[in-house]
Amino acid sequence: MPMSSITAAAPDLPTAASPVVTADRFLAGMRLFASGCAIVAARHGTDRAGLTATALCSVTADPPQLLVCVNRKVRAHALISDSRALSVNVLANSHEPVAKRFAGMVEGVAAEDRFLGSDWGTAITGAPILKDALFSFDCRVVETIPTSTHSLFLCTVVDAVVADPDATPLLYFNGRFAAVS
Ligand SMILES: Cc1cc2nc3c(=O)[nH]c(=O)nc-3n(C[C@H](O)[C@H](O)[C@H](O)COP(=O)(O)O)c2cc1C
């Protein structure tokens, strides 16, 4: 069959105007993607904010870079944009209450009060760093890529602290926090 016939026989290629799946089907699939959990935190001046995040991805090891995807509505977004820095604090299973706090799942906890009840220091970039995280990366934002609801922050890792390599990681799977069994 000539190439032009193959092209002509594929009229339903996805376009931005007609996505292939609905958001619900997309989310139903992504719920089954088990992820590690982290607190992404930032500071600008005296303001601190953080969020529980799973949308993190290693990009390259040389230079050490990762991608962090943050909804523009989230309070930490402005602080990351203004300070051009953030920390990624990967959580152990024992941190489930911290993960719930930074995901806004605990009623009546104001944004700054999310930092109460866990031990935070300051990284080289000035970002808040969780002292007993499984490991923490201190990052500088080198590029911000806007997409529909989120910003993709491409970051260079300037420091890494491994607090407890033997701890069990906290996972998120099918709408729930879970442990590796
Ligand atoms: C397991 C889990 C993973 C999440 N991952 C992300 C993420 O990667 N990026 C994001 O913008 N929000 C993510 N969220 C949502 C934020 O944690 C949540 O909206 C948080 O309350 C935002 O803080 P805010 O109240 O300051 O807006 C996640 C929530 C949960 C429970």
UniProtKB/TrEMBL annotation:
Residues 30-179 form the Flavin reductase like domain. Keywords: Oxidoreductase. InterPro entries: Flavin_Rdtase-like_dom, NADH-dep_flavin_reductase, Split_barrel_FMN-bd. GO terms for biological process: pyrimidine nucleobase catabolic process. The keyword Ligase does not apply. The keyword Amino-acid biosynthesis does not apply. GO terms for molecular function: FMN binding; riboflavin reductase (NADPH) activity. It comes from the Bacteria. Pfam families: Flavin_Reduct. This is MFS transporter. It comes from Methylocella tundrae. The lineage of its organism: Bacteria, Pseudomonadati, Pseudomonadota, Alphaproteobacteria, Hyphomicrobiales.
